[in-house]
Amino acid sequence: FKAAALITSASFLGTMCRYVLTVKLEIPLFISAVMGMILVILLMNIAKLYIPPAGAVTILAMLIPEKYLLIYPLEILLGITLLAVISNFCFKFIFAKLSVKKASTI
């Protein structure tokens, strides 16, 4: 859960940096990108969780078309949640099968 929250927060920070600094204040995009990365690195230090995809989703917020900018964090939240649920289900299913095989071979 902590990793999903960090990645979603990183996408939100990247989106807000681009929206406020570049779209509204017309500051160059590279400054928004630098500011977003500084904030995400601070967030990772506070959370004591260093996940490279958090930086990637921050930079991706600088690359997507402006019309999709405000729904981007929601897409990231849905994607990371779906990934976590599916991987959790798969690992439980795989480990359940492996433990049944180990029990039957003993």
Biggest sheet character:
none
Helix content bin? over 70%
Overall mean pLDDT: 92
Low-confidence parts, pLDDT < 50 over ≥5 residues? none
| Oligomeric composition of the shown chains | single chain
Fraction in beta strands: under 5%
Distance between the termini: 36 Å
Overall form = elongated
The total strand number stands at: 0
Radius of gyration, whole Å = 18 Å
Number of helices: 4
Structural class: mainly alpha
Describe it:
The model has no long low-confidence stretch (mean pLDDT 92). The chain is 83% helix and 0% strand. By secondary structure, it is an all-alpha fold. The two termini are 36 Å apart. The longest helix has 34 residues, at 72-105. It is elongated and about 70 Å long. It has 4 helices and no strands. 23% of the residues are buried.
